[in-house]
Task: structure prediction
Amino acid sequence: MSKIKVMNENLANKIAAGEVVEKISSVVKELVENSLDAHAKSVDVSLVDGGLKSVRVLDDGVGMDKEDVLLAFQRHATSKLIREDDLFFIDTLGFRGEALPSIASVSRVVLKTSSGDVGTLIEIKGGKLLQNVIADARVGTEITVTDLFYNTPARLKYLKTEASELAGCVSLLERIALSHPGVSFTLSNNDRVLVKTSGSGNLHKAIHEIYGLGVSSKMIEVRASNDDFDLYGYVCKPEILKSNRNHFITMVNDRVVKNYDINRAINDAYYTYKPDTKFPIVVLKINTDPTLIDVNIHPTKQDIKLDKIADLYNLIYTTIKDALYNSLLIPDAIKKPEYNEIKNKYVEHFIKEEERCEDVYKESSQVALDLSYDEKKEEPVIINEELKSLVLYPVGVALGTYIIAQNEEGVYLIDQHAAQERVNYEKYLAALKAQKVTTTSLLFPITLELSSSEFLTIKENKDVLTNMGFVIDEFGVNTFVVKEHPTWLKSGYEEESIHKIIDIMIQNNGAFDPVKFNEHIAITLACKMSIKANMRISMEAVEELLQELVLCDNPYNCPHGRPTIIKFSIYDLERMFKRVMN
Result:
Protein backbone atom coordinates (compact mmCIF):
# COMPACT_ATOMS: atom_id res chain seq x y z
CA MET A 1 0.00 0.00 0.00
CA SER A 2 1.37 3.38 -0.99
CA LYS A 3 2.49 5.61 1.89
CA ILE A 4 2.50 8.80 -0.16
CA LYS A 5 -0.87 10.56 -0.44
CA VAL A 6 -1.93 13.72 -2.25
CA MET A 7 -3.18 16.12 0.42
CA ASN A 8 -6.59 17.67 -0.10
CA GLU A 9 -6.83 21.28 -1.24
CA ASN A 10 -8.05 22.64 2.10
CA LEU A 11 -5.05 21.15 3.94
CA ALA A 12 -2.69 22.53 1.31
CA ASN A 13 -4.24 25.97 1.74
CA LYS A 14 -3.78 25.80 5.52
CA ILE A 15 -0.11 24.95 5.04
CA ALA A 16 0.26 27.79 2.54
CA ALA A 17 -1.44 30.12 5.02
CA GLY A 18 1.40 29.46 7.43
CA GLU A 19 3.76 31.15 4.97
CA VAL A 20 1.50 33.85 3.55
CA VAL A 21 -0.38 34.86 6.73
CA GLU A 22 1.91 35.35 9.71
CA LYS A 23 0.04 38.14 11.50
CA ILE A 24 -2.78 40.63 11.05
CA SER A 25 -0.67 42.91 8.89
CA SER A 26 -0.12 39.97 6.51
CA VAL A 27 -3.86 39.86 5.87
CA VAL A 28 -3.99 43.63 5.38
CA LYS A 29 -1.03 43.49 2.99
CA GLU A 30 -2.52 40.80 0.74
CA LEU A 31 -5.96 42.41 0.60
CA VAL A 32 -4.65 45.94 -0.04
CA GLU A 33 -2.30 44.69 -2.75
CA ASN A 34 -5.26 43.01 -4.44
CA SER A 35 -7.05 46.38 -4.36
CA LEU A 36 -4.07 48.10 -5.95
CA ASP A 37 -3.81 45.43 -8.63
CA ALA A 38 -7.51 46.11 -9.32
CA HIS A 39 -6.54 49.75 -10.08
CA ALA A 40 -8.24 51.18 -7.00
CA LYS A 41 -7.83 54.92 -6.38
CA SER A 42 -9.28 54.77 -2.88
CA VAL A 43 -8.62 52.05 -0.28
CA ASP A 44 -10.25 52.03 3.16
CA VAL A 45 -8.95 49.63 5.82
CA SER A 46 -11.10 49.23 8.95
CA LEU A 47 -9.88 47.19 11.92
CA VAL A 48 -11.63 46.10 15.08
CA ASP A 49 -9.34 45.59 18.08
CA GLY A 50 -6.23 45.92 15.97
CA GLY A 51 -7.60 43.39 13.46
CA LEU A 52 -7.85 40.60 16.04
CA LYS A 53 -11.64 40.67 15.69
CA SER A 54 -11.99 41.78 12.10
CA VAL A 55 -10.25 43.30 9.10
CA ARG A 56 -12.27 45.01 6.39
CA VAL A 57 -10.84 46.40 3.15
CA LEU A 58 -13.05 48.48 0.85
CA ASP A 59 -11.86 49.72 -2.54
CA ASP A 60 -13.14 51.34 -5.72
CA GLY A 61 -11.24 49.06 -8.07
CA VAL A 62 -12.58 47.26 -11.11
CA GLY A 63 -14.30 44.57 -9.03
CA MET A 64 -15.04 41.02 -10.17
CA ASP A 65 -17.72 39.33 -12.24
CA LYS A 66 -19.83 36.55 -10.71
CA GLU A 67 -17.91 33.91 -12.66
CA ASP A 68 -14.56 35.03 -11.22
CA VAL A 69 -15.53 35.34 -7.56
CA LEU A 70 -15.41 31.66 -6.60
CA LEU A 71 -12.46 31.05 -8.91
CA ALA A 72 -10.46 33.69 -7.00
CA PHE A 73 -10.59 31.46 -3.92
CA GLN A 74 -9.10 28.46 -5.70
CA ARG A 75 -5.41 27.90 -5.12
CA HIS A 76 -3.10 29.21 -7.86
CA ALA A 77 -6.00 30.88 -9.67
CA THR A 78 -4.82 34.30 -10.87
CA SER A 79 -5.54 36.87 -13.55
CA LYS A 80 -1.95 38.10 -13.51
CA LEU A 81 -0.04 35.21 -15.06
CA ILE A 82 -1.13 33.50 -18.25
CA ARG A 83 2.06 32.09 -19.77
CA GLU A 84 5.24 30.84 -18.15
CA ASP A 85 7.16 33.72 -19.71
CA ASP A 86 4.99 36.16 -17.75
CA LEU A 87 7.11 35.37 -14.69
CA PHE A 88 9.83 37.52 -16.25
CA PHE A 89 7.55 40.53 -16.77
CA ILE A 90 5.63 40.80 -13.50
CA ASP A 91 4.20 44.30 -13.04
CA THR A 92 1.57 43.48 -10.42
CA LEU A 93 1.93 43.11 -6.65
CA GLY A 94 0.31 39.68 -6.54
CA PHE A 95 0.67 36.87 -9.04
CA ARG A 96 0.71 33.47 -7.33
CA GLY A 97 -3.00 33.08 -6.53
CA GLU A 98 -2.26 31.92 -2.98
CA ALA A 99 -3.41 34.78 -0.74
CA LEU A 100 -7.22 34.56 -0.87
CA PRO A 101 -7.50 30.75 -0.57
CA SER A 102 -4.88 30.76 2.20
CA ILE A 103 -6.72 33.44 4.19
CA ALA A 104 -10.10 31.82 3.62
CA SER A 105 -8.84 28.44 4.83
CA VAL A 106 -8.03 29.78 8.32
CA SER A 107 -10.75 32.38 8.85
CA ARG A 108 -14.24 33.51 7.95
CA VAL A 109 -14.36 35.68 4.81
CA VAL A 110 -17.27 37.73 3.49
CA LEU A 111 -16.66 39.25 0.07
CA LYS A 112 -18.93 41.62 -1.81
CA THR A 113 -17.89 42.75 -5.28
CA SER A 114 -19.15 44.05 -8.61
CA SER A 115 -17.68 45.12 -11.91
CA GLY A 116 -20.68 47.33 -12.60
CA ASP A 117 -23.53 45.02 -13.59
CA VAL A 118 -24.73 42.62 -10.91
CA GLY A 119 -22.99 42.37 -7.55
CA THR A 120 -22.01 39.13 -5.82
CA LEU A 121 -21.73 38.30 -2.13
CA ILE A 122 -20.06 35.12 -0.93
CA GLU A 123 -19.19 33.81 2.52
CA ILE A 124 -16.46 31.23 3.16
CA LYS A 125 -15.42 29.76 6.50
CA GLY A 126 -12.47 27.43 6.89
CA GLY A 127 -12.33 27.00 3.12
CA LYS A 128 -16.01 25.95 2.85
CA LEU A 129 -18.56 28.01 0.91
CA LEU A 130 -21.48 29.03 3.14
CA GLN A 131 -23.39 31.35 0.80
CA ASN A 132 -23.28 32.79 -2.69
CA VAL A 133 -25.94 35.42 -3.41
CA ILE A 134 -26.67 38.49 -5.52
CA ALA A 135 -25.66 41.82 -3.97
CA ASP A 136 -25.71 45.52 -4.92
CA ALA A 137 -23.81 46.66 -7.98
CA ARG A 138 -21.38 49.15 -6.41
CA VAL A 139 -18.19 48.96 -8.49
CA GLY A 140 -15.29 47.71 -6.41
CA THR A 141 -14.71 45.13 -3.72
CA GLU A 142 -15.38 44.91 0.00
CA ILE A 143 -13.83 42.01 1.89
CA THR A 144 -14.12 41.31 5.62
CA VAL A 145 -11.99 38.75 7.47
CA THR A 146 -12.94 37.57 10.97
CA ASP A 147 -12.05 34.67 13.27
CA LEU A 148 -8.49 34.48 11.92
CA PHE A 149 -6.77 31.18 12.80
CA TYR A 150 -9.90 29.90 14.56
CA ASN A 151 -9.19 26.39 13.19
CA THR A 152 -5.40 26.49 13.63
CA PRO A 153 -4.82 27.13 17.36
CA ALA A 154 -1.07 26.65 16.99
CA ARG A 155 -1.05 29.75 14.79
CA LEU A 156 -3.60 31.64 16.87
CA LYS A 157 -1.46 31.62 19.99
CA TYR A 158 1.36 33.40 18.15
CA LEU A 159 -0.74 36.47 17.38
CA LYS A 160 0.49 39.33 19.55
CA THR A 161 -1.35 41.93 21.59
CA GLU A 162 -3.81 44.33 20.02
CA ALA A 163 -1.32 47.20 20.30
CA SER A 164 1.45 45.19 18.64
CA GLU A 165 -0.72 43.89 15.78
CA LEU A 166 -2.14 47.37 15.24
CA ALA A 167 1.33 48.91 15.10
CA GLY A 168 2.29 46.38 12.42
CA CYS A 169 -0.78 47.27 10.35
CA VAL A 170 -0.16 51.01 10.64
CA SER A 171 3.51 50.65 9.66
CA LEU A 172 2.55 48.48 6.69
CA LEU A 173 -0.11 50.85 5.36
CA GLU A 174 2.19 53.85 5.75
CA ARG A 175 4.74 52.12 3.53
CA ILE A 176 2.15 51.15 0.95
CA ALA A 177 0.73 54.69 0.95
CA LEU A 178 4.19 56.10 0.27
CA SER A 179 4.72 53.59 -2.55
CA HIS A 180 1.43 54.68 -4.17
CA PRO A 181 1.03 58.42 -3.50
CA GLY A 182 -1.63 58.59 -6.22
CA VAL A 183 -4.00 56.38 -4.20
CA SER A 184 -6.04 57.66 -1.25
CA PHE A 185 -5.61 55.44 1.84
CA THR A 186 -7.45 55.42 5.14
CA LEU A 187 -6.80 53.10 8.09
CA SER A 188 -8.98 53.16 11.18
CA ASN A 189 -9.13 51.07 14.32
CA ASN A 190 -12.38 50.89 16.29
CA ASP A 191 -13.62 53.83 14.14
CA ARG A 192 -10.63 56.01 14.99
CA VAL A 193 -8.69 57.17 11.91
CA LEU A 194 -4.94 56.53 12.29
CA VAL A 195 -3.66 56.94 8.73
CA LYS A 196 -5.12 59.12 6.00
CA THR A 197 -3.56 60.22 2.73
CA SER A 198 -5.10 62.31 -0.03
CA GLY A 199 -3.90 60.40 -3.08
CA SER A 200 -2.60 63.62 -4.64
CA GLY A 201 0.20 61.86 -6.48
CA ASN A 202 2.80 64.10 -4.80
CA LEU A 203 5.32 62.00 -2.87
CA HIS A 204 6.50 64.88 -0.68
CA LYS A 205 2.93 65.62 0.31
CA ALA A 206 2.40 61.94 1.14
CA ILE A 207 5.48 62.08 3.38
CA HIS A 208 3.96 65.13 5.09
CA GLU A 209 0.67 63.29 5.61
CA ILE A 210 2.44 60.25 7.10
CA TYR A 211 5.20 61.86 9.16
CA GLY A 212 4.07 65.47 9.67
CA LEU A 213 5.79 68.78 9.00
CA GLY A 214 8.61 68.15 11.46
CA VAL A 215 9.93 65.43 9.13
CA SER A 216 8.70 66.56 5.71
CA SER A 217 10.34 69.99 6.13
CA LYS A 218 13.70 68.28 6.64
CA MET A 219 13.58 65.95 3.65
CA ILE A 220 15.87 66.39 0.64
CA GLU A 221 14.69 65.43 -2.84
CA VAL A 222 16.91 62.99 -4.73
CA ARG A 223 16.64 62.07 -8.38
CA ALA A 224 19.08 60.17 -10.60
CA SER A 225 19.27 57.63 -13.42
CA ASN A 226 21.69 55.31 -15.13
CA ASP A 227 21.25 52.91 -18.03
CA ASP A 228 19.13 50.46 -16.02
CA PHE A 229 17.63 52.26 -13.01
CA ASP A 230 15.64 55.41 -12.30
CA LEU A 231 15.84 56.73 -8.76
CA TYR A 232 13.49 59.22 -7.11
CA GLY A 233 12.55 60.04 -3.55
CA TYR A 234 13.43 61.92 -0.38
CA VAL A 235 16.11 61.46 2.26
CA CYS A 236 16.24 63.18 5.63
CA LYS A 237 18.80 65.62 6.91
CA PRO A 238 21.04 64.04 9.58
CA GLU A 239 19.31 66.00 12.36
CA ILE A 240 16.24 63.70 12.46
CA LEU A 241 17.74 60.23 12.71
CA LYS A 242 15.92 57.22 14.15
CA SER A 243 17.10 54.35 16.33
CA ASN A 244 16.33 51.56 13.80
CA ARG A 245 16.09 50.85 10.08
CA ASN A 246 12.27 50.72 10.07
CA HIS A 247 12.16 54.01 8.19
CA PHE A 248 14.14 52.75 5.20
CA ILE A 249 11.11 52.70 2.88
CA THR A 250 12.24 51.39 -0.48
CA MET A 251 10.10 50.49 -3.47
CA VAL A 252 11.12 48.69 -6.64
CA ASN A 253 8.58 49.14 -9.44
CA ASP A 254 6.10 50.32 -6.76
CA ARG A 255 6.58 47.16 -4.68
CA VAL A 256 7.66 47.80 -1.08
CA VAL A 257 10.72 45.65 -0.42
CA LYS A 258 13.31 45.05 2.27
CA ASN A 259 16.50 44.35 0.37
CA TYR A 260 19.86 44.04 2.11
CA ASP A 261 21.92 45.58 -0.70
CA ILE A 262 19.62 48.57 -1.13
CA ASN A 263 19.57 49.21 2.63
CA ARG A 264 23.35 48.88 2.74
CA ALA A 265 23.75 51.51 0.02
CA ILE A 266 21.52 53.91 1.96
CA ASN A 267 23.31 53.36 5.25
CA ASP A 268 26.74 53.64 3.64
CA ALA A 269 25.78 56.97 2.06
CA TYR A 270 25.15 58.35 5.56
CA TYR A 271 28.39 56.80 6.86
CA THR A 272 30.06 60.02 8.03
CA TYR A 273 26.83 61.90 8.66
CA LYS A 274 25.46 59.86 11.57
CA PRO A 275 26.44 57.59 14.48
CA ASP A 276 26.45 53.85 13.76
CA THR A 277 23.46 53.36 16.07
CA LYS A 278 21.22 55.86 14.29
CA PHE A 279 19.44 55.55 10.94
CA PRO A 280 17.80 57.99 8.53
CA ILE A 281 14.27 58.33 7.22
CA VAL A 282 14.41 57.49 3.51
CA VAL A 283 11.60 57.11 0.99
CA LEU A 284 13.11 55.83 -2.24
CA LYS A 285 11.37 54.72 -5.44
CA ILE A 286 13.39 52.60 -7.87
CA ASN A 287 12.11 51.80 -11.34
CA THR A 288 13.69 49.28 -13.63
CA ASP A 289 12.93 46.77 -16.35
CA PRO A 290 10.96 43.84 -14.81
CA THR A 291 13.39 41.41 -16.44
CA LEU A 292 16.13 42.68 -14.11
CA ILE A 293 14.32 41.61 -10.94
CA ASP A 294 13.02 38.37 -9.48
CA VAL A 295 10.11 38.88 -7.07
CA ASN A 296 9.50 35.17 -6.58
CA ILE A 297 12.13 34.45 -3.92
CA HIS A 298 10.17 35.06 -0.70
CA PRO A 299 6.76 33.70 0.39
CA THR A 300 5.49 37.19 1.26
CA LYS A 301 7.30 38.84 -1.69
CA GLN A 302 9.03 41.26 0.69
CA ASP A 303 12.47 40.69 -0.80
CA ILE A 304 13.62 40.53 -4.39
CA LYS A 305 16.72 39.67 -6.36
CA LEU A 306 18.21 42.33 -8.60
CA ASP A 307 20.53 42.02 -11.55
CA LYS A 308 23.26 44.65 -11.80
CA ILE A 309 23.05 45.28 -8.05
CA ALA A 310 26.54 46.84 -8.03
CA ASP A 311 25.36 49.53 -10.48
CA LEU A 312 22.27 50.19 -8.35
CA TYR A 313 24.37 50.35 -5.18
CA ASN A 314 26.65 52.97 -6.72
CA LEU A 315 23.70 55.00 -8.01
CA ILE A 316 21.98 55.07 -4.60
CA TYR A 317 25.21 55.70 -2.69
CA THR A 318 26.49 58.59 -4.79
CA THR A 319 23.07 60.21 -5.22
CA ILE A 320 22.28 60.30 -1.49
CA LYS A 321 25.80 61.28 -0.45
CA ASP A 322 25.86 64.17 -2.95
CA ALA A 323 22.42 65.31 -1.79
CA LEU A 324 23.54 65.38 1.85
CA TYR A 325 26.73 67.23 1.00
CA ASN A 326 24.87 69.85 -1.02
CA SER A 327 22.31 70.56 1.71
CA LEU A 328 24.50 71.08 4.75
CA LEU A 329 23.87 74.20 6.85
CA ILE A 330 24.75 75.34 10.34
CA PRO A 331 21.75 74.42 12.52
CA ASP A 332 20.09 77.31 14.34
CA ALA A 333 19.74 76.79 18.08
CA ILE A 334 16.27 78.35 18.01
CA LYS A 335 13.62 78.00 15.32
CA LYS A 336 12.69 81.32 13.73
CA PRO A 337 9.13 82.58 14.38
CA GLU A 338 8.30 82.34 10.69
CA TYR A 339 8.27 78.58 11.18
CA ASN A 340 4.80 78.55 12.80
CA GLU A 341 3.48 80.93 10.18
CA ILE A 342 4.73 78.61 7.45
CA LYS A 343 3.29 75.58 9.24
CA ASN A 344 -0.14 77.17 9.71
CA LYS A 345 -0.28 78.31 6.11
CA TYR A 346 0.97 74.89 4.97
CA VAL A 347 -1.68 72.93 6.90
CA GLU A 348 -4.47 75.42 6.15
CA HIS A 349 -3.99 75.08 2.42
CA PHE A 350 -3.81 71.29 2.64
CA ILE A 351 -7.16 71.12 4.40
CA LYS A 352 -9.20 74.06 3.07
CA GLU A 353 -7.86 74.59 -0.44
CA GLU A 354 -7.23 71.10 -1.78
CA GLU A 355 -7.86 72.21 -5.36
CA ARG A 356 -4.98 74.69 -5.13
CA CYS A 357 -2.82 72.56 -2.86
CA GLU A 358 -0.09 71.67 -5.33
CA ASP A 359 0.90 75.28 -6.10
CA VAL A 360 0.79 76.36 -2.46
CA TYR A 361 2.57 73.20 -1.37
CA LYS A 362 5.50 73.78 -3.70
CA GLU A 363 5.85 77.36 -2.51
CA SER A 364 5.58 76.70 1.23
CA SER A 365 7.64 73.51 1.25
CA GLN A 366 10.43 75.35 -0.55
CA VAL A 367 10.52 77.89 2.30
CA ALA A 368 10.18 75.22 4.99
CA LEU A 369 12.97 73.14 3.51
CA ASP A 370 15.27 76.21 3.33
CA LEU A 371 16.59 75.14 -0.08
CA SER A 372 17.84 77.42 -2.84
CA TYR A 373 16.99 76.62 -6.45
CA ASP A 374 18.44 77.69 -9.75
CA GLU A 375 15.37 78.88 -11.66
CA LYS A 376 16.67 77.72 -15.01
CA LYS A 377 17.90 74.27 -14.06
CA GLU A 378 15.49 73.50 -11.20
CA GLU A 379 18.47 71.98 -9.39
CA PRO A 380 19.47 72.53 -5.75
CA VAL A 381 22.30 75.07 -5.54
CA ILE A 382 25.33 73.98 -3.52
CA ILE A 383 25.04 75.87 -0.29
CA ASN A 384 27.70 74.34 1.89
CA GLU A 385 29.94 77.40 1.42
CA GLU A 386 28.12 79.04 4.33
CA LEU A 387 30.67 78.28 7.03
CA LYS A 388 33.67 78.76 4.75
CA SER A 389 32.64 82.38 4.17
CA LEU A 390 32.36 83.12 7.90
CA VAL A 391 34.95 84.98 9.91
CA LEU A 392 34.68 83.74 13.49
CA TYR A 393 36.22 85.53 16.45
CA PRO A 394 36.74 83.24 19.47
CA VAL A 395 35.92 84.76 22.84
CA GLY A 396 36.27 81.78 25.19
CA VAL A 397 35.56 78.15 25.98
CA ALA A 398 32.55 77.01 28.03
CA LEU A 399 32.70 73.92 30.25
CA GLY A 400 36.09 73.07 28.81
CA THR A 401 34.27 71.68 25.76
CA TYR A 402 32.42 74.31 23.72
CA ILE A 403 34.28 77.10 21.97
CA ILE A 404 32.35 80.38 21.99
CA ALA A 405 32.84 82.53 18.89
CA GLN A 406 31.03 85.52 17.43
CA ASN A 407 30.72 87.75 14.38
CA GLU A 408 28.31 90.36 13.10
CA GLU A 409 25.57 87.73 12.62
CA GLY A 410 25.50 86.19 16.07
CA VAL A 411 27.13 83.78 18.51
CA TYR A 412 28.39 80.31 17.65
CA LEU A 413 29.07 77.28 19.85
CA ILE A 414 31.64 74.86 18.48
CA ASP A 415 32.23 71.39 19.96
CA GLN A 416 36.02 71.32 20.18
CA HIS A 417 36.28 67.52 19.93
CA ALA A 418 33.84 67.21 17.01
CA ALA A 419 35.51 70.11 15.20
CA GLN A 420 39.04 68.74 15.51
CA GLU A 421 37.77 65.25 14.70
CA ARG A 422 36.44 66.62 11.39
CA VAL A 423 39.72 68.43 10.68
CA ASN A 424 41.80 65.35 11.44
CA TYR A 425 39.46 63.05 9.51
CA GLU A 426 39.81 65.07 6.31
CA LYS A 427 43.59 65.27 6.75
CA TYR A 428 43.91 61.50 7.20
CA LEU A 429 41.51 60.74 4.35
CA ALA A 430 43.39 63.04 1.97
CA ALA A 431 46.68 61.41 2.95
CA LEU A 432 45.27 57.92 2.41
CA LYS A 433 44.04 58.89 -1.06
CA ALA A 434 47.27 60.61 -2.08
CA GLN A 435 49.14 59.12 -5.03
CA LYS A 436 52.54 59.90 -3.56
CA VAL A 437 53.32 58.77 0.00
CA THR A 438 56.12 60.24 2.06
CA THR A 439 57.57 57.92 4.70
CA THR A 440 59.93 58.20 7.63
CA SER A 441 62.04 55.58 9.39
CA LEU A 442 61.44 54.58 12.99
CA LEU A 443 64.38 55.01 15.32
CA PHE A 444 63.09 51.99 17.26
CA PRO A 445 61.12 49.56 15.04
CA ILE A 446 57.73 48.51 16.38
CA THR A 447 57.16 44.80 16.98
CA LEU A 448 53.71 43.32 16.41
CA GLU A 449 53.04 39.94 18.04
CA LEU A 450 49.86 38.35 16.69
CA SER A 451 47.85 35.16 16.88
CA SER A 452 48.19 32.67 14.03
CA SER A 453 44.96 33.76 12.34
CA GLU A 454 45.80 37.46 12.75
CA PHE A 455 49.29 36.89 11.37
CA LEU A 456 47.91 35.16 8.28
CA THR A 457 45.39 38.00 7.69
CA ILE A 458 48.13 40.63 7.81
CA LYS A 459 50.49 38.52 5.70
CA GLU A 460 47.85 38.01 3.02
CA ASN A 461 47.13 41.74 2.86
CA LYS A 462 50.61 43.09 3.46
CA ASP A 463 50.48 44.97 0.16
CA VAL A 464 47.70 47.15 1.58
CA LEU A 465 50.07 48.37 4.29
CA THR A 466 52.89 48.76 1.78
CA ASN A 467 50.74 50.98 -0.44
CA MET A 468 49.91 53.11 2.60
CA GLY A 469 53.63 53.74 3.19
CA PHE A 470 54.53 51.15 5.83
CA VAL A 471 57.67 49.06 5.59
CA ILE A 472 56.80 45.86 7.44
CA ASP A 473 58.70 42.56 7.56
CA GLU A 474 58.17 39.18 9.15
CA PHE A 475 60.13 38.81 12.37
CA GLY A 476 59.90 35.35 13.86
CA VAL A 477 56.83 33.27 14.66
CA ASN A 478 53.54 35.17 14.14
CA THR A 479 55.41 38.45 14.46
CA PHE A 480 55.97 41.49 12.22
CA VAL A 481 58.29 44.43 12.67
CA VAL A 482 57.39 47.89 11.35
CA LYS A 483 60.46 49.84 10.22
CA GLU A 484 58.92 52.82 8.38
CA HIS A 485 55.57 54.59 8.43
CA PRO A 486 53.87 57.38 6.46
CA THR A 487 54.60 60.89 7.72
CA TRP A 488 50.92 61.72 8.18
CA LEU A 489 50.74 59.70 11.41
CA LYS A 490 50.44 62.13 14.32
CA SER A 491 53.77 62.78 16.01
CA GLY A 492 54.02 61.08 19.37
CA TYR A 493 51.17 58.70 18.55
CA GLU A 494 52.85 56.60 15.86
CA GLU A 495 52.78 53.29 17.71
CA GLU A 496 49.18 53.73 18.88
CA SER A 497 48.12 54.64 15.32
CA ILE A 498 49.87 51.61 13.82
CA HIS A 499 48.15 49.29 16.29
CA LYS A 500 44.77 50.85 15.43
CA ILE A 501 45.35 50.30 11.70
CA ILE A 502 46.41 46.69 12.27
CA ASP A 503 43.30 46.12 14.42
CA ILE A 504 41.06 47.46 11.65
CA MET A 505 42.69 45.13 9.11
CA ILE A 506 42.14 42.17 11.42
CA GLN A 507 38.50 43.15 12.03
CA ASN A 508 37.91 43.22 8.27
CA ASN A 509 39.34 39.69 8.10
CA GLY A 510 40.87 40.33 4.72
CA ALA A 511 37.69 41.65 3.05
CA PHE A 512 38.85 45.08 1.91
CA ASP A 513 36.69 47.69 0.26
CA PRO A 514 39.37 50.37 -0.33
CA VAL A 515 36.97 53.29 0.16
CA LYS A 516 35.43 51.96 3.37
CA PHE A 517 38.79 50.78 4.68
CA ASN A 518 40.31 54.24 4.25
CA GLU A 519 37.27 55.90 5.81
CA HIS A 520 37.36 53.50 8.76
CA ILE A 521 41.02 54.24 9.38
CA ALA A 522 40.50 58.00 9.00
CA ILE A 523 37.53 58.02 11.38
CA THR A 524 39.26 55.86 14.01
CA LEU A 525 42.52 57.83 14.00
CA ALA A 526 40.69 61.18 13.90
CA CYS A 527 38.67 60.28 16.98
CA LYS A 528 41.61 58.95 18.97
CA MET A 529 43.98 61.80 18.07
CA SER A 530 41.60 64.71 18.72
CA ILE A 531 41.26 66.82 21.82
CA LYS A 532 38.56 65.55 24.15
CA ALA A 533 35.73 67.22 25.98
CA ASN A 534 36.76 68.86 29.26
CA MET A 535 40.30 69.26 27.95
CA ARG A 536 41.52 72.84 28.38
CA ILE A 537 43.16 74.41 25.31
CA SER A 538 44.74 77.81 24.76
CA MET A 539 43.14 80.62 22.79
CA GLU A 540 45.91 80.22 20.21
CA ALA A 541 44.85 76.58 19.76
CA VAL A 542 41.22 77.68 19.52
CA GLU A 543 42.02 80.18 16.76
CA GLU A 544 44.03 77.59 14.84
CA LEU A 545 41.21 75.03 15.13
CA LEU A 546 38.60 77.48 13.80
CA GLN A 547 40.85 78.44 10.89
CA GLU A 548 41.30 74.76 9.99
CA LEU A 549 37.58 73.98 10.43
CA VAL A 550 36.40 76.59 7.93
CA LEU A 551 38.76 75.11 5.33
CA CYS A 552 37.25 71.63 5.62
CA ASP A 553 35.32 70.17 2.74
CA ASN A 554 32.44 69.41 5.12
CA PRO A 555 32.85 71.52 8.27
CA TYR A 556 29.33 70.94 9.61
CA ASN A 557 29.58 67.59 11.35
CA CYS A 558 32.15 65.17 12.69
CA PRO A 559 32.66 61.87 10.83
CA HIS A 560 30.28 60.20 13.31
CA GLY A 561 27.48 62.57 12.29
CA ARG A 562 27.37 64.91 15.30
CA PRO A 563 27.18 68.66 14.55
CA THR A 564 30.37 70.66 14.97
CA ILE A 565 28.75 74.08 15.24
CA ILE A 566 25.42 75.63 16.32
CA LYS A 567 24.37 79.23 15.72
CA PHE A 568 22.51 81.71 17.93
CA SER A 569 21.60 84.61 15.66
CA ILE A 570 21.46 88.12 17.10
CA TYR A 571 17.70 88.01 16.62
CA ASP A 572 17.50 84.73 18.58
CA LEU A 573 19.41 86.23 21.48
CA GLU A 574 17.33 89.41 21.52
CA ARG A 575 14.12 87.39 21.58
CA MET A 576 15.43 85.26 24.44
CA PHE A 577 16.22 88.36 26.49
CA LYS A 578 12.95 90.10 25.48
CA ARG A 579 14.76 92.89 23.65
CA VAL A 580 12.38 92.19 20.76
CA MET A 581 8.86 90.91 21.31
CA ASN A 582 7.78 89.71 17.85
